[in-house]
Design the sequence.
């Protein structure tokens, strides 16, 4: 079977255009995506809700109000949990399946939400943030892989990007909830506690959904996998998909080798893929997205808008732009392509960060001029408008498709861990750096990082739009070993590098 004849490849779909699947053509695939994407909603809600809740936590706990370190720890302890959850999530996914990993994430997240809502002091609150982070970390690995493995290749980018839409939708929902609870007694407890509701909903729905068909094939559960695939493809393409996955299963049996963490670095083509995937995840954070999402109300107050409610309202507008931009990204990612979308997104991010930096520099020299505050808000809005269609969905989409089957869970977990470590560094240091060198200089540093990210994507990230998993795998073989390397197994190369 040649690459052009693989089910879902461009050559295959050119030969059989009637077998091509569009985004809304199959409600079953879309329902799998939406339910799995509730994990993204949890991810996004937790990212957004803490920014508004922190304004009121400071009012309740004097120790938090007096300490930037405690504020950063409350925000970043969820990231510590997410880092651990993502690292373990790759192994959990490969060992027990995508479905069980999702159910586990929901239980942990709901428990953490209850602990936060009942927290009598900042330290119990920090414990709750750690538990919530563990759940988010596992979900951040699982949802993109589950969706990608159930997706036809021609709409895989759009469907995985739907998970990112759920992340941005969760952020928007969190700001809406924050605004709605501003006048309710126990303000921040409601904001944090209500996060458990989507986790309970996903747990209930996920019990009714199947396991990933590719994981089922990998675990030699062929009949269960065929039952799932029959709801995704028509009969003609279904037979081709089954034949192909059966041949892949036979190859896996012949290898008879378990994948270990060190194999990612020993195997040249996997190492190249991981560098590209992990680099995208790191730059997604180091270009400042969660600085904007975690601290947007605080940034708005820095810009001169002192009312908590006004800060939350303006942040709600920023979050709505984030969600709207992701909708645009769902269309563009399978049309413009992943690489071009990331490059154009980063170009706009650089411009936006320069505007933010300039507005804060100007505000520091003339704080009486309200124009600079509005310039900062405009910079935030432009940042989101450029970031959300590109650098929002592209890292997660690319990481769900650039690794071969045997490595997908472990590499997905490792790259997600890189994302969370980078997220932790940004969240733990932003306020302190802004206090030390000024907000304007901080955004200027982020602009410099965005320039580096642009060069990284241009040089190291290939285009994967519309390619099957096997065509993507072949890109890394050619980059590692040159043309003519198609027949040699990735795993067999491990000892040669």
Sequence:
């Amino acid at each position: 079977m040649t690459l052009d004849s693989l089910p879902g490849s461009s050559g295959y779909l050119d030969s059989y255009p009637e077998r091509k699947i569009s985004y809304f053509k199959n409600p079953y695939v879309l329902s799998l995506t939406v339910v799995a994407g509730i994990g993204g909603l949890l991810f996004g809600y937790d990212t957004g809700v803490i920014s508004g809740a922190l304004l009121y936590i400071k009012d309740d706990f004097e120790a938090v109000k007096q300490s930037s370190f405690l504020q950063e720890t409350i925000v970043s302890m969820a990231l510590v949990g997410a880092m651990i959850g993502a690292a373990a999530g790759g192994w959990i996914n490969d060992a027990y399946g995508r479905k069980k990993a999702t159910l586990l994430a929901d239980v942990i997240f709901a428990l953490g939400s209850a602990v936060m809502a009942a927290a009598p002091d900042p330290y119990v609150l920090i414990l709750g943030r750690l538990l919530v982070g563990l759940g988010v970390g596992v979900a951040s690995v699982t949802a993109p892989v589950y969706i990608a493995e159930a997706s036809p290749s021609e709409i895989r980018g759009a469907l995985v990007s739907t998970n990112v839409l759920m992340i941005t939708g969760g952020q928007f929902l969190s700001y809406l909830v924050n605004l709605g609870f501003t006048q309710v007694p126990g303000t921040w407890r409601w904001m944090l506690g209500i996060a458990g509701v989507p986790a309970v909903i996903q747990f209930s729905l996920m019990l009714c959904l199947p396991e990933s068909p590719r994981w089922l094939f990998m675990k030699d559960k062929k009949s269960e996998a065929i039952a799932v695939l029959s709801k995704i493809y028509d009969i003609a393409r279904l037979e081709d998909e089954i034949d192909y996955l059966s041949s892949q299963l036979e190859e896996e049996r012949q290898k008879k080798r378990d994948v270990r963490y060190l194999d990612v670095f020993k195997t040249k083509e996997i190492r190249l893929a991981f560098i590209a995937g992990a680099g995208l995840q790191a730059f997604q954070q180091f270009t400042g997205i969660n600085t904007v999402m975690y601290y947007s109300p605080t940034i708005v107050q820095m810009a001169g808008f002192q009312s908590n409610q006004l800060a939350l309202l303006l942040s709600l507008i920023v979050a709505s732009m984030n969600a709207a931009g992701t909708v645009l990204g769902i269309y563009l990612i399978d049309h413009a392509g992943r690489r071009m979308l990331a490059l154009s997104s980063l170009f706009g991010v650089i411009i936006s960060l320069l505007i933010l930096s300039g507005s804060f520099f100007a505000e520091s020299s003339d704080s009486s001029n309200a124009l600079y505050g509005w310039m900062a808000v405009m910079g935030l809005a432009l940042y989101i408008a450029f970031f959300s269609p590109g650098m929002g969905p592209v890292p997660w989409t690319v990481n769900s498709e650039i690794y071969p089957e045997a490595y997908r869970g472990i590499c997905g977990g490792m790259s997600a861990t890189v994302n969370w470590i980078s997220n932790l560094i940004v969240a733990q240091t932003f306020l302190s750096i802004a206090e030390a060198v000024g907000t304007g200089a901080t955004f200027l540093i982020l602009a410099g990082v965005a320039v580096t990210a642009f060069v990284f994507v241009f040089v190291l990230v290939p285009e994967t739009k519309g390619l099957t998993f096997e065509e993507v795998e072949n890109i890394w073989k050619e980059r590692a070993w040159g043309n003519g390397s198609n027949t040699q197994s990735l795993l067999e190369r491990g000892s040669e590098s």
